[in-house]
Amino acid sequence: MPNSSAATAGMPETRFPALGWLLPPLALCVWFAPYISLVAGCGLIAAVMLLRQRPSRSLSLAAFLILTLISAVPLATKTLEPRMNDKVNYYLEMLQASGYGLTEWLTQFSGADFLSHLLFKLSAMLFGSGNAAFAAFFIVSFSLLALGVYRLTRVYFAVILFLFCCQYNFQGLYGNLLRQGLALSFLVLAAAEQRRAPMLLWIILASLSHFSSYLFLPFLLLPARWRTIGTLPALAAFAACYLGGALLMPKLLALVGNDFLATRAEAYVSGSFGNNPLRKIQITLLYIAVVEALYQFSRFYFRHRDHPALQSAYAVRLMFLYTCAIFFATSSFEEVANRYSFNMMIFVLIFIVIICGQLKDAVSRVLLTLLCFSLGVASYLYINLIGVQQFWYGDLQALLTDSLPAVFAKLQISGAL
Q: Measured between alpha carbons, how far is 27 from 46 in angstroms, rounded to an integer?
């Protein structure tokens, strides 16, 4: 396949005469409202790539850089106040470890999630114990996620990342639940592998980033033919997992007398941890309905089921179904089940975009593009202006209204203007 970026590079500039007229208004938009302008700009890049249905390295790189900037700067500009969330705990951890060298820290470390804590330590050593270290951690984690998405589907790379970055799950995972965000990046890389050896490596790295990923190790035992497992067998497996997790597990824990786990099993019923378990189940069922409806559509509509894009989509579907099975099996443990519910959205978005992207009808592609662009921008505005930011990702309302000089001032580089 010819390199589309190289082909477009040789086009005469006169083919886009309106571009010169658009540059001044675009520059003004970025100056007065940089964040929403960049979000809209990235959405336009995603729309162009979806309409073209051809990979473009230059557009993919531009979208990746814009999304990194949009997401990393809030972490680098927010005030570190004791809000009793995960990010503050990581900040306190950085402060406590600042007096130790790397060798001394390694000898004293104990506990789980070694890889995440090591990355915290290295980031703090390089950039200090503050938001700059968190931004560095995010860039590493987000780059791994982008690499996994790019390997799964190069054509729709920017579309998927754009939609995911506009969601609450992304801001929660990669802005606050940083260890789990890093683990999810490794899981996406695992889903992109065809061979079991590299898949095992990514899952091990995910497990070393967040303990919850250990339950993905049995995923390696699933045969490749299960990628096309039917909807009814999958639903039956979910029902069995839910019955075993929600009904039998609390009784088993009561018999063995594990107070720590039994307390969390009871918390799932009482909702005392602040989450709504029923709502999580409803959202998961909605995800399953969407994915399985598109799966049945793909089996009926597409003739060449061995197409690489469809094979990638079915691999992502199997990872999603496995995540759902873990969610239902751990439903007695509200905290644990909540973690797995956060992992689902990226796989749902990847599957939706890959399947819908196989449509060859021009009208369908245009409608899909408009839907993706509108959904992404609307979601971003809703969660940042209207929705409750439980994870306190950053001063998002200020970021949406700050001018470019104000952003530079918060980054302490205002003298550059």
A: 20
Q: How far is Cα 133 from Cα 113, in angstroms, rounded to an integer?
A: 18
Which tens digit of pLDDT belongs to each residue from 203-238?
A: 999 999 988 888 899 999 998 889 889 999 999 999
How far is the C-alpha of 179 from the C-alpha of 120, rounded, in Å? 10
Q: Which two tokens stand for residue 179?
A: 């260890």
Q: What is the pLDDT of residues 321-354, one digit of tens each?
A: 999 999 988 877 766 777 788 888 899 889 988 8
357, 324, 360: which is closest to 342 by C-alpha?
324
Q: Model's pTM, two decimal places?
A: 0.82
| Residues 30, 37 contacting (CB under 8 angstroms) | yes
Residue 37 and residue 40: Cα distance in Å, rounded?
5
Three-state SS string over the chain comes to CCCHHHHHHCCCHHHCCCHHHHHHHHHHHHHHCHHHHHHHHHHHHHHHHHHHCCCCHHHHHHHHHHHHHHHHHHHHHCCCCCCCCHHHHHHHHHHHHCCCCHHHHHHHCCCCCHHHHHHHHHHHHHHCCCHHHHHHHHHHHHHHHHHHHHHHCCCCHHHHHHHHHCCHHHHHHHHCCHHHHHHHHHHHHHHCCCCHHHHHHHHHHHHHHCHHHHHHHHHHHCCHHHHHCCHHHHHHHHHHHHHHHHHHHHHHHHHHCCHHHHHHHHHHHHCCCCCCHHHHHHHHHHHHHHHHHHHHHHHHHCCCCCCHHHHHHHHHHHHHHHHHHHHHHCCCCHHHHHHHHHHHHHHHHHHHHHHHHCCCCHHHHHHHHHHHHHHHHHHHHHHHHHCCCCCCCCCHHHHHHCCHHHHHHHCCCHHHC
